[in-house]
Design goal:
alpha/beta; disordered N terminus; disordered C terminus
């Protein structure tokens, strides 16, 4: 039940940020890097709530896509966002890797034993793989931003 409440709050905070079109600046707190086998991940964290939320970006952007909702999450939760390998400030690697393991390593270094994952697009695939592989460590929430625009077809109900 606790996870259901967290999920609802996370979705609400996301909706508020998207619908209000906040133009907040990125976190002033400097990020850091975690070294992995064959790579490095850039991450930022904020907040000191008892529950941890991890924001996963899609496959066409980096963690900056969460800038608009970052302050709201930071007020409510211990929040982590990171750039997956080859995105943003995280360098690409030529060594094979599994993105769910990268997330697990990041959480381990931050001493996080359970997190709610908020993801969109390809980030959702990472969240799903992590949730399946590390079942006891995560609750996954998938988000999708759909905007009606003239000339674009959208499924009924949106």
């Amino acid at each position: 039940m606790k996870n259901s409440n967290i999920a609802c709050l996370v979705l609400l905070l996301t909706a508020i940020g998207v619908t209000q079109g906040q133009t907040s600046s990125p976190s002033n707190a400097p990020g850091a890097f975690v070294d992995l086998d064959g790579g490095r991940l850039y991450y930022e964290e904020c907040g000191n709530g008892g529950d941890t939320v991890v924001l996963l970006h899609d496959g066409a952007a980096n963690s900056a896509v969460w800038d608009d909702v970052w302050p709201a999450f930071c007020k409510q939760f211990h929040t982590i966002r990171y750039d997956r390998r080859g995105y943003g400030r995280s360098p690409a690697t030529t060594k094979p890797y599994y993105e769910a393991d990268d997330l697990a390593a990041l959480l381990y270094t931050r001493k996080v034993t359970h997190a709610s994952l908020v993801a969109s697009s390809h980030g959702g695939q990472v969240a799903l793989n992590f949730t399946l592989r590390y079942t006891a460590n995560a609750s996954a929430i998938w988000c999708s931003s759909v905007r009606r625009r003239p000339g674009f077809l959208t499924p009924s109900g949106f």
